[in-house]
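Quarterly update from the structural biology core.
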Amino acid sequence: MSVRELVEYLNLEKKTIATMESCTGGYIANSITNIEGASNILRFSSITYSNEYKIKMGVSKDIIDKYSVYSVEVANEMSKKISEFTNSDYGIGITGKLNRVDENNPYGEDNVVFISIYIKDKQESFTNQIKVGKKSREENKEEVLKETLKMMKDLV
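Predicted structure, tokenized:
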């Protein structure tokens, strides 16, 4: 599934989506907004690099403390909370490390990204983690986008 196909599908089905991204820095939302018709389906996007703002957006501090900010559990919280916050049909949560050691969060494997897609109608999150290894952050973000689109294709 391409970004264009995703936007067209969501428009056709009158469904909405929202994202809470960390390491991808809004790359998913930006890719969606590059497609005509995105304003009908993208409710809201949040870039939550810091734990503080993940928590302000509804992610449980206890889950961050227990599993680390770089975990499937936090990605699941991100996707669900952004869907609830915006009343969107789909919520995407992405957290991980891209080509960088995080001094504020020393735990978690480098270059591993956790992707979660929450489906409101099913009240369920679907997750994956990928290992990225490209030289540039932008190339790694593109890899995360491709995996997210692959997941969406399997879920819609």
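Helices lie at 3-13, 27-33, 38-41, 51-56, 61-67, 72-86, 137-155.
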